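Teaching note: in complex prediction, the entire set of molecules is handled at once rather than each chain in isolation. The prompt given to students was simply: 'Predict the structure of this complex.' The entities are:
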Amino acid sequence: MNAAGSGCFHCGEPIPSGVLTTVTLDGQSKPVCCIGCRAAAEMIRDAGLGDYYRFRTAAAPRPQLDADDVWSTYDRPEVQAPLVGHEGGLQVVNLLIEGLRCSACSWLIGERLDRLAGIARANVNPATARAQVAFDASRTSLAAVLRSIAALGYRPHVLGATDTLEVATRERRLALKRLAVAGFGMMQVMMIATALYVGAVDGIDPVIREYMRIICLVVTTPVLFYSGRPFFAGAAASLRARHIGMDVPVSIGIGLAFVASAWNTFLHRGEVYFDSVTMFIFLLLLGRYVEMLARHRAGSTAEALLRLVPATAMRIADGRRERVPVAQLAAGDRIWVLVGECFPADGLAHSATEADEALLTGESLPVAKPVGARVIAGALNRGAPVEIELTAVGQSTVLAGIVRLLERAQTERPRIARLADRAAAWFVSRVLLGAAVVAAVWLYIDPSRAFEATLAVLVVTCPCALSLATPTAITAATAALARAGLLVTRPDALESLAQADTVLFDKTGTLTLGHPQLERVTTRGVPREMALAIAAALERGSEHPLSQAFDGIVAAPAEDPSIHPGQGVEGRVHGRRYRIGTPAFVASLAGAPPADLVESAIHLGGDDGWLASFELGDTLRPQAAELVRELQSLGITPLIASGDHAAAVGATAAQVGITQWHARLLPADKLALIGSLRERGARVLAVGDGINDAPTLRAASVSLALGTGSALAQASADLVALRGDLTTLPTAVRLARRTATVIRQNLVWSATYNVIALPVAALGLVPPWLAAVGMSISSLLVVLNALRLARGTAPPRQPGRPPLLATPLAAT
Amino acid sequence: MSILFVMIPLGLVLVGFALWAFFWAVGDGQFDDLESPGWSVVADDKPAPTVEEPQ
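The expected output is the structure of the full assembly:
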């Protein structure tokens, strides 16, 4: 059984026609798509790690064959020093591993590292894609560690000795401890409170009753002061900022209920509300804990973006090239960037090349960089080795600026939270006012009942249900969506998603897979196989994404190929000169182009004329048409807004059944389109995969990014599809609508409850114990209603992916 | 009912012990990764021959 289905055994990508590369595993021959995958699969097999293929739940990343060993520079002391920590004679390094997709991946990396000599410890965490490796520098080296991970097809990034993940881990551990104290305390108090409630009805020995109350007080005290601390701290902070936040009513509620209970315990009279206090703290902490987990996961992607910048660069000084840490570079320096390397800083190109800025611009094709063009840090050099004169380094680069913008956007408070805060502030001030009025009136009528009535008012109207109504529903829905592979990065995203009535697709990479494939081959007087073989031979040396279309075709041997960035490749096959690329580039060798030429295709020509044209197309995502139909059935109008040429966009739209589409749009046009849609009252959901959609994504009412797209889009979008497919979108819309319904139900319920309970309590008709029960049941109802959302969605099964547990069972 | 004066404190001591154990487990990183250890149990039962270590 194999997670990859019918594609490449290792990476799961479709195997190009004509490829016969295989790898033998357990006596069976398995097809792979390229030499890189074969090497990785053989390495895994030979290391005795073949079990990986049985237990993985996602296909492996496709290995990149590094021509130049970029890892050896990590062994130089000045590069290594800031990155490596020390722990009792061992070197400790934290790595972010790109391409780590499932638990089997982390097992594979862990096993591979454990078998290297000199590795003391290798902890790989699949949830965060981090690894911490402790090694003995006298027996192995950092470069060896990185090289062995890279050989498996993953791409390690060195994070340094400490990173923000440790802060997050500490925060999570503390929250877990607080949750445990509240949970244990709640269970103990509830157990004893049950006895007290039964005793209140059936009669109870007063000594036992007082004893049990004291026990409750003893247990509740640590819950209040340890677990409840975040609420008091939050309330104090919001009061200092002269603003009544959600934490204020919560703190007043639990604080007053506790003080009153403790008071009554000491005076041996009245009622105690310890059960309500502990339960309230536990339930609120639980909600905050789940929300924190989601937040940490979302935050780690933004941080990963900065790791795009390599750690070292080749500086040209006095005509010599030397590898130096990027931190030592300054504006005005000249550096040499190889093909396949990332630019470490912003600069000007001294010779022509092509840059893949997909991670920054979302543009999937490389951009031509003529002499003097500006290149940006984090972009990948795909054309030719190039000399760069640096213009900005470190924090002044475009990349750093984008990251700062995103971070600022992330810290902004969502609209719904501000509204909820205002509502709570209004509500709590009215409750306090009401309680004061009740106290004054009862003091006038019957002072002996004043305290009980006031307390009943405060307890029964404690904004527990109100403050739980929205966050619990959102948290439950967020958790359910996370299980289905969709991450909510902003709390108000669900509300906007529920209201969305228009969805705007950015064609590249959202409805299609983004891998070019040969669609049609037109030959002119040569056999098809020969034309393909020559084309594959020329494209073999090219890093251009379009050359992927020729991957795996049996190629003829090519001699001295030369890459002309932005134009094509020239080379010799069987002694004859050929060119492949744009019409103009081929025409200068093959003569005037034939009349029936398709301009957008790739052409092959030789000394003696034009040989063939290759029309490339992008494959639709498997369930794209189904997705569009489902969205339409939910009353959502789909639209395509793409930067591609009209023919390609029109064809895609027709295939998936979308009637409204716009082609050749610049980012500014997309913004204008969204603006006009919103003016007409539409609520737009934008689906994108790159940073040139980041403004588009932000302009829309709600945005969704695909996880396999750029990390930047992930950081700026409201929702992130982690599995890189959109099949969860209709589920998400349905869940968001149900969440909106549940929130409304909860708010209506808690408002109704308070409106009915308040006057009854004010009249002194509610004994405080009944008020506490009422409040607890009211909160519980709200929570249980919200938790229905968490149960609602079963994780959709991946096509070609067996259920999690069936994999090892079926294989053994 | 006077047995309650023994049993409830005893119960609280047990809860205290459970909390101490939980705090230790959290501090030890037992809850940092709840996914991959489950897999390692399944995967490790067949020791595979290795290249680095001669058999």
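Point out the following to students. The first strand of chain A starts at residue 22 and ends at 25. The CA atoms of residues 254 and 583 of chain A lie 75 Å apart.
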